[in-house]
């Protein structure tokens, strides 16, 4: 399944890392050749990463075009925190810098979180309502084109307090990008062909239709901006209205949609999207669902 020679030729590790790392890599490439089925491949990839670099968690998420993500592989700690991958796929993912990098910017490759996150990351809604509770100290990962306009995110996390990936480790992991592309991209395309627009278009369409049957036009505009991750101040600036007006419309919209927080709003929105299990026939006959049950049951 994986041609070892071209991959090994692309590795540029330091001399002191060379022999040991290449031996480990070659061992795992042989395992990939005999791995049967996608779950087995994911386990081999996770094992290879753990063998080469100290990583506390490896997660592999598949994003079918225009649908909610699917958890193909996870390694979660025993924790009392309710914030985990299940919460992530139910809504928080739309604000994830890795998700945004693909769907809005068409970026693929290996990235640290600091390369993708905005400077105001810790002040944003994604960090305040989800990320701060995950226990992740440092994160990096791969964004790889999948099939049918989708993509795959292989996420690597350090969770020990103060633990961060070193430059040497990041270089080593970055050099494995070619392996990830060969494993997860069965139909690779040029990075500049514009095909990343498809999943973005479908999500954008669903966002703009969300709640259309129960919200006013202004309420729908504000809800759309919230789903895109804008803060109240940013929404006020974008729409040319006061922050108090934003709060008023947001409160009215939340009441009509039967939600009380942004996380609940995300969950309600995600429920309107097709899942990966939706058949092509069903998808052809359906449109994004716009109606959301209000608190009054209408």
By CATH reckoning, the class of the largest domain would read Alpha Beta
- Report low-confidence residues grouped into runs of 5 or more: 1-16, 187-200, 276-291, 293-298
Gap from first CA to last CA: 53 Å
Query: What share of the residues lie within helices?
Result: 40-55%
The general outline is elongated
Give the CATH architecture of the largest domain: 2-Layer Sandwich
The total tally of domains equals 2
User: CATH H-level name of the largest domain... which superfamily?
Assistant: Transcription factor LuxR-like, autoinducer-binding domain
Strand order of the largest sheet: 2-1-5-4-3
How many beta strands in the DSSP annotation? 5
**What profile does the largest beta sheet have?**
5 strands, antiparallel
Strand content bin? 5-15%
Q: Which series of helices and strands comes N to C?
A: HHHEEHHEHHEEHHHHHHHH
CATH topology tier name of the largest domain: Beta-Lactamase
Radius of gyration: 21 Å
Written account of the structure:
- The chain has two domains: 181 residues, Beta-Lactamase (2-Layer Sandwich), CATH 3.30.450.80; 76 residues, Arc Repressor Mutant, subunit A, CATH 1.10.10.10.
- It has 15 helices and five strands.
- Strands 2-1-5-4-3 form a five-stranded antiparallel sheet, sandwiched between helices.
- Helix 2 runs antiparallel to helix 3, helix 11 crosses helix 13 and helix 12 packs across helix 13.
């Amino acid at each position: 399944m994986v041609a070892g020679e071209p991959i090994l030729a692309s590795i540029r590790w330091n001399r002191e890392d060379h022999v040991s790392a290449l031996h480990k890599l070659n061992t795992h490439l042989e395992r990939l050749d005999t791995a049967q089925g996608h779950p087995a491949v994911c386990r081999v990839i996770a094992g290879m990463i753990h063998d080469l670099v100290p990583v506390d968690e490896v997660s592999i998420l598949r994003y079918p075009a225009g649908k909610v993500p699917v958890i193909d592989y996870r390694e979660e700690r025993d924790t009392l925190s309710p914030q985990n991958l299940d919460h992530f796929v139910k809504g928080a993912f739309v604000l994830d810098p890795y998700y945004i990098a693909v769907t809005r910017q068409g970026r693929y490759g290996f990235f640290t979180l600091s390369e993708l996150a905005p400077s105001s990351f810790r002040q944003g809604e994604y960090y305040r309502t989800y990320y701060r509770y995950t226990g992740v100290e440092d994160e990096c990962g791969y964004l790889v084109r999948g099939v049918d306009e989708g993509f795959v995110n292989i996420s690597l996390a350090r969770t020990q307090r103060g633990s961060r990936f070193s430059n040497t480790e990041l270089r080593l992991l970055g050099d494995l990008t070619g392996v990830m592309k060969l494993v997860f991209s069965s139909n690779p395309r040029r990075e500049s062909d514009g095909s990343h627009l498809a999943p973005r278009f479908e999500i954008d369409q669903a966002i703009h239709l969300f709640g259309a049957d129960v919200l006013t036009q202004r309420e729908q505009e504000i809800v759309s901006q919230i789903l895109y991750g804008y803060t109240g101040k940013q929404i006020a600036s974008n729409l040319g209205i006061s922050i108090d007006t934003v709060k008023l419309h947001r409160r009215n919209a939340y009441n009509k949609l039967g939600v009380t927080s942004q996380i609940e709003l995300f969950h309600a929105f995600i429920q309107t999207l097709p899942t990966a299990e939706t058949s092509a026939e069903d998808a052809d006959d359906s449109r994004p669902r716009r109606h959301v049950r209000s608190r009054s049951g209408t």
